[in-house]
Amino acid sequence: MRLLYPVEANEVFVRLGSQAAAALRAQGFEFYDWGATDSGHARFVVSWDQPDCEVEALAQAIIAL
């Protein structure tokens, strides 16, 4: 996985790949497909009051892929 753009706000754009995206969705994470169809790019958006534990859970799920 790789960041597509510098992180400057509450949105993160990444190159996930279709298998990683499916695996994260199977674990209950919600995010947007981004870019061209089947590009494997995704956009994650968090609220400014998002609990840290939810962000950490996503980070750990990504690391485990």
What is the structure about, briefly put?
The chain is an alpha+beta fold and 65 residues long. 34% of the residues lie in helices and 23% in strands.
For the sheet with most strands, the description reads: 4 strands, antiparallel
- Helix and strand sequence: EEHEEH
Q: How much helicity do the residues have?
A: 25-40%
The number of distinct β-strands equals 4
Mean pLDDT: 93
- What radius of gyration results from the CA coordinates? 11 Å
Assembly category:
single chain
How would you classify the helix and strand content by structural class?
A: alpha+beta
What this model shows, in words?
β1 and β2 form a beta hairpin. The protein contains two helices and four strands; from the N terminus they run ββαββα. By secondary structure, the protein is α+β, with helices and mostly antiparallel strands. The model has no long low-confidence stretch (mean pLDDT 93). It has a single domain, classed as Aspartate Aminotransferase, domain 1 (Alpha-Beta Complex). It has a four-stranded antiparallel β-sheet, with no helix packed on it.
List descriptors:
2 helices; 4-stranded antiparallel beta sheet; Aspartate Aminotransferase, domain 1; single chain; 65 residues; globular; 4 strands; alpha+beta
Topology:
Blueprint: E1 2-3, E2 11-15, H1 18-26, E3 32-34, E4 41-45, H2 52-64
Antiparallel strand pairs: 1-2, 2-4, 3-4
